[in-house]
Amino acid sequence: MMKTLVTNLRYQMTKHQKILALLGWILTCFGTSAIGAAGSLQAKSFYAGLTQPDWAPPGWLFGPVWTILFAMMAIAIWRVCSIATRNESRIATLLFLAQLALNALWSWLFFAWQSGSWAFVNIILLWGLIVSCIVFFWRTSKLGSLLLVPYLCWVSFAAMLNYSLWQMNTNILS
Q: pLDDT at residue 8 above 50?
């Protein structure tokens, strides 16, 4: 009975609405990427000028990785919102938009404002919100949840890199 009630509360989107929703999420995710990129205009030379750990990836790797991750993120939130109840969709959207905001802010903190400490605080909060999204998405869409796992792995790696760069470059990254 309860399962039937929950199913009835789900909003059924038409195929046209689903396509528009996917395009909207793609634009939202890549719009966030553009905001972050605006804070990273000098990232290439800045990153190259930092003392780096031996395991730091080359600067050229970040663009392709983030492109794939933002595409996967858009599909993840779209998948969840296209099958969730309205309430689940609202919560998923708020969690997702919050982590997107922190994602964009990180580039500004680290590259534009050269604050290794605040960038590290930001990335830890971002990590927690990604975990929250994964857990929340799991209830509605296992696929949507799993699509965020590579993002969590990359942000985990980025957090370690952020911390290492901050510690190795305290004269630059206050």
A: no
Residues 65 and 154: beta-carbon distance below 8 Å: yes
Shortest CA distance to 122 belongs to which of 144, 102, 92, 147?
A: 102
Nearest residue to 72 (alpha-carbon basis) of 170, 155, 162: 155
Closest CA to 114 of 51, 170, 37, 155: 170
Show Cβ contacts of residue 74 under 8 Å, excluding neighbours closer than 6 positions: 22, 25, 26, 28, 29, 30
Who's near 157: CB < 8 A, 6+ residues apart?
none
C-alpha 94/C-alpha 106 separation (Å) is 19
Helix axes 149-168, 116-140, angle to 10 degrees: 170
Topology, domain 15-168: Ferritin (1.20.1260)
The pTM assigned to this predicted structure is 0.90
For the beta carbon of residue 165, count every other beta carbon within 10 angstroms: 22
Tokens 């009975």 correspond to what residue?
1
Q: Where are the alpha helices (DSSP H) in the chain?
A: 2-9, 15-38, 43-48, 62-83, 86-107, 116-140, 142-146, 149-168
Where along the chain do its domains lie? Answer: 15-168
98-142, pLDDT tens digit by residue? 999 999 999 999 999 999 999 999 999 999 999 999 999 999 999
